[in-house]
Amino acid sequence: MNINELKSLFGKNEFDSLLMDIYEDSSLIGYQNNRYIKALDKFESLFGEGEVEIYSAPGRTEVGGNHTDHQHGQVLAASINLDAISITQKTDDGIISLVSEGYDLITIDTANTELIEEEKGTTVALIKGVVNEFKNRGYKVGGFKAYITSDVLVGAGLSSSAAFEAVIGTILSGLYNDMKISSVEIAIISQYAENVYFGKPCGLMDQMACSVGGFVNIDFIDPANPVVNKIDFDITNEGYSLCIVDTKGSHADLTDDYALIPTEMKEVAKVFDKEVLGDVNPDEFFSNIPKALAGASSRGVLRAYHFFTENKRVSVEVNALKENNFHKFLDTVKESGNSSYKFLQNIYANKEPLNQPVSIALAASEYILGDNGVCRVHGGGFAGTIQAFVKNEAVPEYKKFIESIFGTDSCHILKIRKYGGMKVQWVF
After folding, report:
1. The domain that contains 347 carries what CATH number?
2. For labeling, which of 25, 48, 167, 391 is most exposed (least CB within 10 Å)?
């Protein structure tokens, strides 16, 4: 559709039902209309008028499976109603010309996508990695012009980079492959781009949740062939919102803390002649605690205890959603948070025991919520964010209380989005 026609229709609120379907929140409709119009304006200023398509990919939240993926366990993740959107125009020159909001123009020749070491850690590397793996898998690629803007919060554990990768993969699927490439395969391609071209050894959870959408259960028992199951469940029908609280704690100098979790878990696995805990029989572990303590640290054993119980909790959460037992789901989310605090011990850094913003956020949440919600650490831990599922009627009070502690806009009220990477299409 032509840019000017699209701007007119967004301006006349013709797409309100579509935006409600995507973003799940009536209070955001005005914001999204304006956001799309501004993005169209920016594309026009960069690349001129013409026919365009719009693509979208969301951020994600980890719901269950805290530090289980690296041990070949299970996770439960979900897409959220913050996303990257791309105003996109197909070209026939094989050149990708792309501007991300706040950054300079990037140009990439799709015929020349070899890995260049000096490009690692750059957006160019990410895009080239996605394009190259499309070609490796026998899919069509080609040129396009794009302006991408994202409201996925950077540094909040919501996977802004995975949303970007997913939107690039979805664009290539839509423009050149009739939208026939599965969201699961786009996620695997995105992980390849980030691992090999960008140089970050990430797992697959982020990309899978952003690409597939909704609640997604991923079993990493065979990391090369993860088992992915999408779960159709709408928490909006339960009268709950998802809140992500930014405690403003710094992730700087926490590399060692993060690294010690898989290291210590693997030390326990080694006691049982396995590489990772996912390959250890839980009953064998629980029947041989003295053996584990003789071969590994006490904290390592506690972290292993967390892994085995957390892995089981993911299955409980998945079944609870499938059976529409939301109360069971919430109880298990709370159990997950308690286990991370007591056994995984990723709530604060040992080298800074007097600085505990995540602990404060959890304590404050439990105090103000009572029976109106549950909370847990979100993502890697030690600093950063917590997650809370909150009854809608309790959200205003929760937000006010939390922001009195951590500052304005520290509490982000989100919804679970049912769509992953998608072409935004309109029907009249």
Report:
1. 3.30.70.890
2. 48
Tokens 């609870």 correspond to 320
Residues 22 and 111 in one domain: yes
Per-residue pLDDT tens listing for the chain (428 residues): 999 999 999 999 999 999 999 999 999 999 999 999 999 999 999 999 999 999 999 999 999 999 999 999 999 999 999 999 999 999 999 999 999 999 999 999 999 999 999 999 999 999 999 999 999 999 999 999 999 999 987 765 666 889 999 999 999 999 999 999 999 999 999 999 998 999 887 778 889 999 999 999 999 999 878 899 999 998 889 999 999 999 987 666 787 888 899 999 999 999 999 999 999 999 999 999 999 999 999 999 999 999 999 999 999 999 999 999 999 999 999 999 999 999 999 999 988 899 999 999 999 999 999 999 999 999 888 988 999 999 999 999 999 999 999 999 999 999 999 999 999 987 55
Nearest of 67, 171, 88, 78 to residue 189 by alpha carbon: 171
Q: Quick one: DSSP state of residue 194?
A: I
Give which of 192, 166, 227, 214 is closest to 423, Cα–Cα. Answer: 166
- Say whether both 254 and 168 belong to one domain: no
Report field, pTM of the whole predicted structure over 0.85: yes
What's the domain range around 292?
240-414
| Torsion angle of C-alpha atoms 379, 381, 384, 385, degrees rounded to 10 | 50
User: In total, how many domains does the chain have?
Assistant: 2
Residues 114, 25 share a domain: yes
Are 127 and 250 members of one domain?
Answer: no
Residues 336 and 260 in one domain: yes
As given in the structure block, the two tokens for residue 1 are: 């559709």
d(CA 306, CA 318): 18
Ranges of beta strands (E only) in 198-289 are 215-219, 227-231, 240-246
C-beta separation of 86 from 167 below 8 A:
yes
CA–CA gap between residue 299 and residue 295 (Å, rounded): 12
Number of neighbouring beta carbons within 10 Å of residue 356:
18
- How far apart CA 103 and CA 106 sit, in angstroms, is 9
Helices (H), 272-354: 282-287, 289-295, 298-322, 326-339
Whole-number Å distance between alpha carbons of 330 and 405? 25
**In 3-state terms, what secondary structure has residue 370?**
helix
Tokens found for residue 221: 């028992």
